Amino acid sequence: MKYLGIDHGNARIGIAISDLSLTLARPLRIVKHVSRLEDAKTISIIAAEEACSVIIIGLPLDADGSIGPRARSVNRFIEELRLQTECEVIAWDESNSTKNATEISILRGESKKQRQTAMDDQAAAIILQDYLDNHQLSGVRGKSEKI
User: Which residue in 6, 16, 86, 141 is deepest, having the highest Cβ count within 10 Å?
Assistant: First the structure.
């Protein structure tokens, strides 16, 4: 069993995947945003190809934890994805995932030019890793959190 992690952006969708032990997440790829329907179809196909049973999607909550316009858009995508996949689809707070991906890039010593390339897949890996870490520590792996 593997999990897929998604960082759904306006222009690109970052995708990450877990290992079989559900311990580590790694960037998988970036796909270009087309439409809600086509994006859901693409993610569903990737999940099937990678033998994933759960899809974790980063939900961009506002600073106060509320659901703003961007999170509503992601929720609409989640609804479409649930229609197109047999995988369980879970929303997970993605607060600061892109910022964290940039900070990690800086710590690795990457130049500013290197950091200007899309890091959506790395942000997806951060979202997925956060989910895995929180569920490994709390002993509730497999239970879903619906936001």
Answer: 6
Say what the pTM is. Answer: 0.81
pLDDT digits (tens, 9 = 90+) for 37-77: 999 999 999 999 999 999 999 999 888 888 999 999 999 99
Query: How far apart are alpha carbons 111 and 108 in whole angstroms?
Result: 9
Q: In the CATH hierarchy, which fold is given to the domain comprising 2-138?
A: Nucleotidyltransferase; domain 5 (3.30.420)
The residue extents of the domains of the chain are 2-138
Rounded Cα distance between 55 and 44, Å, is: 9
Residue among 16, 1, 20 nearest 97 (CA): 16
Residue whose entry in the numeric block shows the structure tokens 């998988």: 28
Query: What's the CA gap between 35 and 27, in Å, rounded?
Result: 22
In whole angstroms, give the CA distance from residue 3 to residue 13: 16
Instruction: Give the whole-angstrom CA distance, residue 30 versus residue 129.
Output: 17
22 in helix, strand or coil?
coil
Q: What residue spans of 10-55 are helical by DSSP H?
A: 36-49
Select from 43, 61, 147 the least CA-distant residue to 97: 61
User: What are the CA-CA distances from residue 112 to residues 5, 7, 11, 27, 124 (Å)?
Assistant: 26, 22, 21, 20, 21
